[in-house]
From TrEMBL:
Pathway: Nucleotide-sugar biosynthesis; UDP-alpha-D-glucuronate biosynthesis; UDP-alpha-D-glucuronate from UDP-alpha-D-glucose: step 1/1
Source organism: Pustulibacterium marinum
NCBIfam families found in the cross-reference section: NDP-sugDHase
Name this protein carries in UniProt: UDP-glucose 6-dehydrogenase
Reaction(s) this enzyme catalyzes, per UniProt: UDP-alpha-D-glucose + 2 NAD(+) + H2O = UDP-alpha-D-glucuronate + 2 NADH + 3 H(+)
UniProt function note: Catalyzes the conversion of UDP-glucose into UDP-glucuronate, one of the precursors of teichuronic acid.
Lineage: Bacteria, Pseudomonadati, Bacteroidota, Flavobacteriia, Flavobacteriales
Length: 463
């Protein structure tokens, strides 16, 4: 029976997941640790509207469990030593240097965690990989832990996270399935898996808790994300065909989605998928396949990324072409910066890449997102290193009022499907814009007919 859980990494995965475990297992102490002091301070903020991760419903879960059996701390060593079970939820960004640059996951942070666990532990531990990882990472963690020379025994489990941002709390409360991979060949391995099964069984029906060997679990996570991303790229590829054939991509999606073998989800055409997982996981899959010489497998999955990049570029090109082939000096309002609605996460957001292309064409961008602060938007653009920080600053203004973003603009581009955009006073926006007033709806979010009746030139994807 697990009494003390430690989670290393208080990010979008570790924070919400541990909050729900603590909420549902009041007898288990859960300590979430991070080296980022500001982040931990924000998790401990009295005012739960200031948590570092924005997720609908998360504030209530934290308010219920924090201080009771949920703790946030920067004392990593202490939490590791006291725990029976340690979740690793640190970031695994795509490598930006050396072999596998732009493809392989950078496992630096994972290895540092493993070494820290090895150094600090004085009692046996179950170590759980939570971060999305390339297949066979568990082996690397095991190698490090098993070679410490002290008598501590470790079991390594893979327990991939399937929560989607924006619906994380719902997904954690009622997951389609929980996947636990471990060493199925030994008594100790099976016992460790059982210990984690018992944690989840506090609220998840046992038949939805799946146990497999470690490699299947690791690969299933990559595969699930690759399949989901593939659906988005598939429908996006057809959106381009719809635009030239007068078919309507939403109608096509509805028609095929009613086939129960296909199903209706993940068929929403968009400016392109973003988020910390889809691209990274597919790149991992491609990299692993290539490293085993499976070039056809690698090429097959790489095409999902190629199509997604094309979709983002195509959206930017459409704006430029429609605005009479030049956006130089023209104000373009961006509604939305997050990679999807109901999150403040911007990792790999399509908005970043569309903005980058427009800035290279010397456009003046005015950005409004209900949850993303200016500092994050600057960071995202500077991270691309396409131009200097000063040049980005000169090209981008971030505002906290959507009407101000649109005032005097040649065009409005919808990059995120935030619900509030639908309810704006579009007549007021129209009155304040230069004419012709263009709207480029990258999410098929707005009522195009209504906008056209006001006088807008309304352009959307797949129609
Ligand atoms: C994804 C997986 O869904 C989740 O199971 C995994 O644990 C992490 O990766 P997430 O990236 O948070 O979750 O969000 P998701 O809802 O999958 O959306 C990813 C991207 O695809 C977003 O940019 C979204 O806007 C886009 N998308 C999604 C579409 O463009 N069309 C769709 O139909 C669905
Ligand atoms: P994810 O979406 O996977 O949760 P995030 O980047 O949101 O990724 O969160 C990962 C967190 O892990 C960050 O807050 C980072 O500071 C933390 N982290 C990385 N390495 C370590 C480490 N060695 N010890 C503690 N925390 C770490």
């Amino acid at each position: 029976m697990i009494k003390n859980i430690c989670c290393i990494g208080a990010g979008y995965v570790g924070g919400p997941t541990m909050a729900v475990i603590a909420q549902k297992c009041p007898e288990v102490n859960v300590t979430v640790v991070d080296i980022n002091e500001a982040r931990i301070a924000a998790w401990n903020d009295e005012d739960v509207s200031k948590l570092p991760v924005y997720e609908p419903g998360l504030d209530a879960v934290v308010a219920e469990a924090r201080g009771r059996n949920l703790f946030f701390s920067t004392n990593v060593d202490k939490a590791i030593d006291e725990a029976d079970m340690i979740f690793i939820s640190v970031n695994t960004p795509t490598k930006t240097y050396g072999v596998g640059k732009g493809m392989a996951a950078d496992l630096k942070y994972i290895e540092l965690c493993a070494r820290q666990i090895a150094r600090v532990s004085t009692t046996d531990k179950i170590v759980v990989e939570k971060s999305t990882l390339p297949v066979r990472t568990a082996q690397a963690i095991r190698d490090i832990l098993d070679n410490t020379g002290n008598d501590v025994k470790y079991q390594i489990l893979s327990n991939p996270e399937f929560l989607a941002e924006g619906t994380a709390i719902e997904d954690l409360h009622a997951p389609d399935r929980v996947l636990i991979g471990g060493d199925t060949n030994t008594e100790e391995g099976r016992a460790a898996m059982q210990a984690l099964v018992e944690v989840y069984a506090s609220w998840v029906p046992k038949e939805q808790i799946l146990t497999t060997n470690v490699w299947s679990s690791e690969l299933s996570k990559l595969t699930a994300n690759a399949f989901l991303a593939q659906r988005v790229s598939s429908i996006n590829s057809l959106s381009e065909l719809c635009e030239v054939t007068e078919a309507d991509v939403d109608e096509v999606a509805k028609a095929i989605g009613m086939d129960s073998r296909i199903g209706p989800k993940f068929l929403k055409s968009s400016v392109g998928f973003g988020g910390s997982c889809f691209q990274k996981d597919i790149l991992n899959l491609v990299y692993i396949a290539k490293s085993y010489g499976l070039n056809e497998v690698a090429d097959y999955w790489e095409q999902v990324i190629i199509m997604n990049d094309h979709q983002k570029g195509r959206f930017a090109s459409k704006i430029i072409k429609t605005l009479y082939n030049t956006v130089n000096g023209k104000k373009i309002a961006f509604l939305g910066w997050a990679f999807k609605k109901d999150t403040n996460d911007t990792r790999e957001s399509a908005a970043i890449y569309v903005a980058d292309i427009l800035l290279s064409e010397m456009a003046q961008l005015s950005v409004y997102d209900p949850k993303v602060p200016e500092a994050q938007i600057s960071f995202d653009l500077n991270y691309l290193a396409s131009r200097t920080k000063e040049e980005n600053e000169a090209g981008v203004t971030v505002v906290t009022d959507p009407y101000k973003a649109c005032e005097g603009a040649h065009a409005v581009a919808v990059l995120t499907e935030w619900d509030e955009f639908k309810d704006y006073d579009w007549q007021r926006i129209y009155d304040g814009m230069l004419k012709p007033a263009f709207v480029f709806d990258g999410r098929r979010l707005l009522d195009g007919e209504k906008l056209k009746a006001i006088g807008f030139e309304y352009k959307t994807i797949g129609k």
